Inverse folding.
């Protein structure tokens, strides 16, 4: 890879490191435990708001999972308007319609109800309402402008950690890509981790979203921006995923496993808020934007390959994580444990849609994202990137 690109990347990472030191990342007020979403509604109800836009996705709208939350908000004399046109991998258009709706109903706060897709969309809607910018115009770092409308979040997956991160990932379908809006102003004001809302999450989504948590914890652990405090949070999250995700997958109604996973998701979310993610996410974003592959699933399939590629630079870190999950202190043992976890959760080894003829485009997008935003421990050149992609093709 060009020396100039690496130099530019190192400078950007230095600026990010200084920014995280100088600008204290705000943390949302948290409500935790079964039915904590109702306590969050009481917290919102005690504020001088009149009109709330509840942002959720189509699937959750059909399930009606938000009804108890809506009723509780209404019991505080709040007008609640539900906007449910959000899809997995939310698009700039869906966000634009949400901004219009929020302005029409005079919303003075936004409640995000759903997985990362609904929460990310809600964050960008709140920013769009106050800034008159489209989602695409806010892509990048610190492009939001004025403070967004206040956002409150109820994650229904565990998950992206979006309830605590300064990021929102949006999809621009015409360009077949996903990109991030990154700004501390996007961090929600308060959030509830309510296991009761996750009991019906289907096993395949439980697995994919849980492996997103694992990927966050590992990528933040080996990030060049990591700190001792972040590493502790990541170790906690890695250990929790190995212990509780197989239980939540087998027995979705297990409240304790759901609560444990939502806490792991939150801790991993704080970690990526400060140390960011890496190549796994860079490839996953392009694969999500191009083929619509669910985010957590894409991460799960790619994760062992990126770790093997980076192994010589992060050998000690991976050995430590192996110990944390009760394996011999050895990097290969940790990567193997991830592959075994993937097998246990029925994660495929390949992507059916991935084709050799798309490699140039996929690698270019992943490299651009990684080099502009992610503090990766080891750089990849084009040949190494394509070798990695070739392992993901079903031949
Ligand atoms: N902002 C961040 O920091 C951040 C971090 C990682 C990923 N992301 C983004 O988040 C998005 C992925 O979010 P996700 O993985 O949470 O999935 P998602 O929000 O796309 O939801 C996936 C599916 O699960 C369904 N679902 C959600 N909760 C449910 C429940 N309790 N019961 C039944 N069905 C339920 C939804 O209807 C949807 O069909 C991607 O766009 C990804 O890029 C954001
Ligand atoms: Fe993620």
């Amino acid at each position: 890879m060009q020396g100039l690109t690496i130099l530019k990347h190192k400078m950007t990472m230095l600026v990010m490191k200084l920014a995280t030191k100088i600008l204290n990342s705000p943390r949302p007020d948290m409500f935790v435990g079964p039915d904590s979403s109702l306590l969050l509604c009481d917290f919102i109800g005690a504020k001088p708001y009149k009109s709330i836009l509840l942002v959720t996705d189509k699937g959750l709208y059909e399930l009606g999972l938000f009804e108890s939350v809506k009723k509780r908000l209404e019991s505080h004399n709040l007008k609640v308007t539900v906007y449910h046109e959000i899809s997995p991998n939310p698009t700039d258009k869906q966000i634009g319609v949400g901004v219009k709706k929020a302005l029409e109903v005079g919303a003075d706060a936004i409640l995000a109800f759903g997985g990362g897709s609904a929460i990310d969309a809600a964050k960008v809607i709140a920013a769009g309402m106050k800034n008159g910018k489209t989602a695409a115009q806010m892509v990048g770092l610190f492009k939001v402008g004025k403070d967004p409308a206040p956002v409150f979040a109820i994650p229904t997956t565990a998950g992206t950690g979006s309830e605590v991160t300064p990021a929102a990932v949006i999809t621009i379908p015409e360009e077949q890509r996903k990109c991030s809006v990154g700004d501390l102003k996007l961090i929600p004001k308060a959030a509830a981790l309510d296991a009761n809302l996750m009991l019906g999450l289907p096993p395949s989504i439980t697995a994919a979203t849980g492996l997103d948590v694992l990927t966050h914890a590992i990528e933040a652990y080996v990030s060049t921006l990591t700190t001792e405090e972040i590493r502790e949070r990541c170790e906690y999250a890695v250990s929790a995923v190995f212990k509780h995700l197989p239980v939540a997958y087998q027995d979705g109604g297990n409240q304790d496993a759901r609560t444990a996973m939502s806490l792991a998701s939150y801790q991993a979310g704080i970690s990526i808020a400060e140390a960011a993610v890496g190549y796994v996410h860079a490839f996953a974003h392009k694969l999500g934007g191009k083929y619509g592959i669910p985010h957590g699933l894409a991460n799960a399939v790619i994760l062992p390959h990126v770790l093997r590629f980076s192994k010589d630079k992060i050998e000690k870190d991976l050995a430590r994580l192996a110990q944390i999950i009760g394996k011999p202190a050895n990097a290969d043992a940790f990567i193997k444990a991830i592959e075994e976890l993937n097998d246990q959760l029925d994660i495929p080894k390949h992507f059916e849609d991935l084709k050799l003829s798309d490699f140039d485009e996929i690698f270019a997008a992943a490299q651009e994202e990684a080099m502009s935003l992610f503090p990766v421990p080891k750089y990849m050149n084009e040949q190494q990137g394509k070798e990695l992609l070739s392992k993901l093709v079903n031949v």
Notes: The chain has two domains: 24-197, 202-390. The domain at 202-390 is CATH 1.20.1090.10 (Dehydroquinate synthase-like, alpha domain).
